[in-house]
Design brief:
The complex is a heterodimer of chains A (425) and B (331). With 425 residues, chain A is α/β, with parallel strands linked by helices. In chain A, the strands form three sheets. In chain A, strands 1, 2, 3, 6, 11, 12 and 13 form a seven-stranded mixed beta sheet that branches. Chain A has a four-stranded mixed beta sheet with strand order 8-9-7-10. Chain A has a two-stranded antiparallel sheet with strand order 4-5. In chain A, a hairpin with a 2-residue loop joins strand 4 and strand 5. In chain A, helix 10 packs across helix 11. Chain A is globular and about 85 Å long. In chain B, 66% of the residues lie in helices and 3% in strands. Chain B contains 13 helices and four strands. Chain B has a two-stranded antiparallel sheet with strand order 1-2. The relative contact order of chain B is 0.11. Classes of the chains: A alpha/beta (425), B mainly alpha (331). At the A-B interface, helix 3 and helix 18 of A face loops of B.
Chain lengths: 425, 331
């Protein structure tokens, strides 16, 4: 039966056509890559700068436009991925074949990604690699090493220092932050019975416990990262962890160390006076300014033990992926991020520079204590198996803090398992 | 008088046996094919309509499941050029011996045992209430169904804040509102209280769905039986037990099978509310396999765990349906 097409039918047909056209527009492919030698085209850059952060603002309004002005025809598309998801996203993209061109990776992911064959080896791909390497701190460069090659370049570095709340310390009758293990124990004793926790941290992974292990004179592995037994479960390492364990037993460390999500985060607790001290990094200044403008952040060195005051090195490296279709531009962008202008811009908003001759203290005096701490800070073992090692260390220690085993037993068990992982290279 | 064409007068049907005519006779359209076999075109049209959906099912579900089963027998990395070694049943024996996996299964079973009856009982209660002709019944239906259509991500984060130890609404109600507890409870700080919070979220989110389905099923309950029972002096609750529930059996079986499957698939709420913590105590099988696969690149092992869970859920569902059929036949 034929019907005369009514106005409504024509309208439906027209809207369907429009919708289809709009949908298909979204399916258009990206720009074609440039030929070698011309620095034009589009590259994608993944990073974990938080939404609404100053870092993201600087990236999008200063850094990338600066690069695009220098190389007209070049276009950098940045993709912000929350830090917790960036590692997984990289793995999934590797499996699916759509990795970006450049990524700002946490330093602990680089050896693993290099082992998986995802990264471009920069010391052979960049003719000026030696000069760039000479510009940066050696410790930061080493985080990019895998076997004989360098698979990235450092972008920013940081470390943890002791941050304290002067009012909370005053409640204990103390005017200076604890400078040694013993002073921290004394602070805990003085705060017993109050609502204030002497020290708070949000986990027991390497990032959390290594400053204490190293400051106590212990270590996690030997120098060549081949063995953990004898190091991780040495008396000194056990003493470092026991300091935290004792605080936890005396209820001077909150439950969040076990990883529960119901408690007050370290930064909020410090600003509101619930926690007397925490360990954290230079990126916290802008965060405290935004969330707790009335709180005056003060810092001091990590409390010293028999091994001195030794903190843990963090930071990010820039990596270029092997599958990048526009490597020339990607490598140039990497060079640009290491340039004095870019590093200076980042230094202004809480990202400490890796350049040896950029005096970040001049840029922002609050960096002083961090620069000081970085002089003795140590990196976590740059081995491909580090994410697994980190997780099992955290699990064992959380079991110990939860009362299932002693700290010594936990570290013994962890050392044995870590040996097996280190043996895999 | 118009000429009515009779069967025999149509040239292309000459030689055919006479077919029933009359107002009720249906005439299937018949087309012949090259080989001369005649097919019922209606069946073919049916297959043609099913084909796209089946193609989707094949590509999006069956093939990935098959691949996951294959991967579970290997030590596997999804990168081109990776060296994937066949390990046979190693991944499975590892899973069965892994204490963390066993813990996650226990958590999933507990979650199931709490949320499935919870949702059925509360959903049935809501459905029975909604059956009455209250003014504003439509509004209530929408309100009860609203949690079902909310995003799991959003409500998981919301419930995480609700159950926060200091400043969470639940603790505020318990400590200051009702005064039943002295100290705020660290809901997400220990295993069983965290699981209780997860179950609360699961039940809250599913009541509406169960209620709507049971409400539809309630329309099939014969009114005469209810009236007869009322005349015989049965109270409301006895009528529900003896008349409504038996009539709802099929619907209840369907609902409970779906809820069991759903409860073993709990993932987003655990990932966002407790992150498997504290110390991996509230891990469920899906978060466990997610972590193993994507954080530690154990794709083979993660796939083995996923296959094991699929088998478990399949056995449970088939078991439930068989039990229900047997009970029905036994009547």
């Amino acid at each position: 039966m034929n019907r005369v097409p009514r106005r409504r039918d024509r309208l439906v047909g027209a809207s369907l056509a429009v919708v289809t056209a709009l949908a298909l527009v979204g399916c258009s492919g990206g720009d074609p890559s440039s030929t070698d030698g011309e620095l034009t085209g589009t590259i994608t850059f993944w990073h974990a700068y938080g939404a609404d952060s100053k870092e993201l603002e600087t990236l999008r309004e200063v850094i990338i436009p600066g690069f695009e002005a220098k190389y007209p025809g070049a276009d950098v598309e940045d993709v912000a991925v929350p830090y917790d998801q960036l590692h997984q996203k990289m793995i999934t993209a590797a499996a699916g074949g759509d990795l970006p061109d450049v990524m700002r990776a946490d330093i602990i992911w680089v050896p693993e990604a290099a082992k998986l064959g995802l990264l471009e080896r920069l010391d052979t791909a960049m003719p000026d690699f030696e000069e760039l390497a000479a510009k940066v701190f050696p410790g930061t460069l080493e985080t990019n090493r895998y076997q004989d090659g360098y698979y990235g370049l450092p972008l920013d570095t940081n470390t943890r220092v002791l941050m304290y709340n002067a009012d909370a310390l005053a409640a204990a009758g103390v005017s200076e932050p604890p400078a040694t293990f013993d002073e921290l124990r004394e602070l805990a004793d003085k705060l017993a019975g109050t609502d204030i926790y002497a020290f708070a941290d949000n986990g027991l992974s390497g990032w959390n416990v290594l400053p204490w292990i190293w400051s106590a004179g212990g270590d996690i592995t030997d120098e060549n990262y081949t063995k953990a037994t004898g190091y991780l479960n040495s008396p000194e390492s056990v003493a470092g962890v026991t300091l935290l364990f004792d605080l936890f037993q005396k209820e001077q460390m909150p439950n969040i160390v076990l990883g529960g999500t119901g408690g007050v985060p370290t930064s909020d607790g410090l600003a509101t006076g619930k926690y007397a001290t925490i360990l954290d990094g230079p990126w916290m200044y802008p965060i405290f300014e935004a969330a707790h403008p009335d709180f005056e952040l003060q810092v001091g060195p990590v409390p010293a033990g028999p091994g001195g005051s030794v903190s843990v090195v963090g930071g990010e490296d820039i990596v270029v992926f092997r599958g990048s279709r526009n490597k020339a531009l990607a490598l140039e962008f990497t060079r640009y991020l290491l340039s004095d202008e870019a590093q200076l811009e980042f230094a202004k908003i809480g990202q400490m520079s890796v350049l040896r001759d950029l005096d970040v203290v001049e840029v922002n005096p609050t960096y002083g204590p961090f620069v000081e701490q970085l002089k003795t800070a140590k990196p976590r073992p740059p081995v491909p198996a580090w994410p697994k090692i980190d997780d099992l260390l955290q699990r064992r220690l959380q079991a110990a803090f939860g009362g299932e085993m002693s700290v010594q037993e936990a570290l013994d068990a962890a050392a044995e398992e870590i040996d097996a992982l280190l043996a895999q290279g | 008088m118009t000429a009515v064409p009779t069967v025999a007068s149509r040239p292309d049907r000459a030689g055919e046996p006479p077919r029933p005519t009359g107002p009720r006779a249906r005439r299937p359209i018949r087309w012949s094919y090259g080989s001369g076999r005649r097919r019922d075109a209606r069946t073919l049209i049916a297959y043609a309509f099913l084909a796209p959906a089946f193609a989707m099912f094949l590509i999006v579900m069956l093939l990935p499941i098959g691949k996951a089963v294959q991967v579970s027998f290997y030590d596997w990395l999804p990168f081109p050029g990776a060296d994937n070694t066949f390990v046979g049943l190693d991944n499975y024996t590892r899973a069965l011996g892994d204490p963390q996996f066993r813990l996650s299964v226990v958590n999933a079973v507990v979650y199931m045992l709490v949320t499935v009856p919870g949702q059925i009982v509360l959903g049935l209660g809501v459905a029975l209430l909604l059956q009455n002709r209250l003014p504003g019944r439509m509004v209530f239906r929408v309100l009860f169904y609203l949690p079902v259509v909310t995003s799991w991500v959003v409500v998981s984060l919301l419930f995480r804040y609700l159950f926060a130890t200091d400043g969470g609404l639940v603790n505020w109600v318990l400590v200051e509102g009702l005064g039943v507890v002295d100290e705020p409870i660290g809901w997400l700080d220990s295993r069983w209280t965290a699981i209780a919070a997860l179950c609360a979220l699961g039940i809250w989110k599913g009541i509406g769905w169960t209620a709507i389905i049971l409400l539809a099923g309630l329309t099939g309950v014969p009114r005469e039986l209810h009236e007869a029972a009322a005349v015989d002096g049965a109270s409301y609750l006895r009528r529900v037990w003896h008349v409504t529930l038996p009539a709802l059996r099929r619907t209840l079986v369907f609902v409970s099978v779906m809820l069991v499957i759903g409860s073993f698939n709990v993932f987003i709420s655990v990932l966002l509310m407790t992150q498997g913590g504290p110390a991996g105590q509230t891990e469920v099988p899906l978060t466990y396999t997610y972590r193993e696969t994507f954080n530690f690149l154990e794709f083979g092992y993660g796939s083995a765990v996923a296959v094991l869970m699929t088998v478990v859920v399949l056995i449970l569902s088939i078991g439930q349906m068989m039990l229900a059929n047997r009970a029905e036949r036994g009547e």
